[in-house]
C-alpha cells in the first residue's frame, strides 16, 4: 500500500492521498488502508517515504542507463531534469511534484523523510552530468536548487512549458561552468 501511495503522490500530488484512493490503487479493501495507516498523517508519511524512495531508485536507474558522450548544454539540462524528477516528468511537475515536496518540507515530521533519499538523488544527478560530458560541474546540490527555482519561477510567471524554461536556465549555467 505504501508503494501505491507513493505512486499516487508522484502522479497526482497530495490531494490524491486518501485512504480510499490508496486502497483502490493497491487493490485492497478500504479498511486495510485505514488499519495500516490509522491517521491521515501516517498515510501521508508513508506516501512521502515511498515516493522519495521511488524517485531516488528511478533516478539511479535512469542515470545509469545513459550512454556516455558529450551532449549540448540544453540536452544535458533536460536529462538532469528527467533525473531529478524520475520516474515521470512533464510540464505539470510543479503542481504534481514540487508543490508536494514543498508541502512536505513545511511539516517537521516529513522533513527527514524528504532528506533521507537526497544523497542518492544527487548521486544520480552527478552520474547524469558525467555521462553528458559535464564532470567539471561539482556542486550538484546547487544544480538541483537551480532546477527547482527555475521550475517554480517559470510556473509563477505563467510559462506553460516549465521544463523547457528550466532546462534553458540550467543550460546557461552549464555553459558558464562546464
From TrEMBL:
Q: What highest taxon heads this organism's lineage?
A: Bacteria
Q: What is the lineage of its organism?
A: Bacteria, Bacillati, Actinomycetota, Actinomycetes, Micrococcales
Keywords in UniProt for this one? DNA-binding
Q: Which Pfam families is this protein grouped with? A: TetR_N
Q: What is this protein called?
A: DNA-binding transcriptional regulator YbjK
Query: Which Gene Ontology molecular-function terms are recorded?
Result: DNA binding
Q: Does the keyword DNA repair apply?
A: no
Residue span(s) of domain HTH tetR-type = 1-55
The record's section on PROSITE patterns has: HTH_TETR_2
Claim: DNA-binding is one of the keywords in the record: yes
Give the DNA-binding residues: 18-37
Amino acid at each position: 500500500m505504501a508503494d501505491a501511495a507513493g505512486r499516487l503522490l508522484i502522479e497526482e500530488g497530495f490531494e490524491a492521498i486518501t485512504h480510499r484512493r490508496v486502497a483502490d490503487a493497491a487493490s485492497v479493501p478500504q479498511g486495510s488502508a485505514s488499519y495500516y495507516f490509522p491517521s491521515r498523517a501516517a498515510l501521508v508519511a508513508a506516501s512521502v517515504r515511498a515516493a522519495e524512495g521511488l524517485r531516488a531508485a528511478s533516478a539511479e536507474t535512469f542515470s545509469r542507463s545513459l550512454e556516455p558522450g558529450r551532449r549540448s548544454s540544453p540536452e544535458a539540462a533536460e536529462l538532469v531534469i528527467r533525473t531529478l524528477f524520475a520516474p515521470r516528468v512533464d510540464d505539470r511537475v510543479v503542481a504534481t511534484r514540487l508543490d508536494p515536496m514543498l508541502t512536505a518540507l513545511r511539516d517537521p515530521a516529513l522533513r527527514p523523510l524528504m532528506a533521507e533519499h537526497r544523497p542518492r538523488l544527487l548521486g544520480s544527478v552527478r552520474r547524469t552530468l558525467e555521462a553528458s560530458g559535464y564532470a567539471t560541474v561539482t556542486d550538484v546540490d546547487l544544480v538541483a536548487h537551480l532546477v527547482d527555482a527555475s521550475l517554480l519561477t517559470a510556473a509563477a510567471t505563467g510559462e506553460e512549458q516549465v521544463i523547457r524554461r528550466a532546462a534553458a536556465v540550467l543550460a546557461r549555467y552549464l555553459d558558464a561552468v562546464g
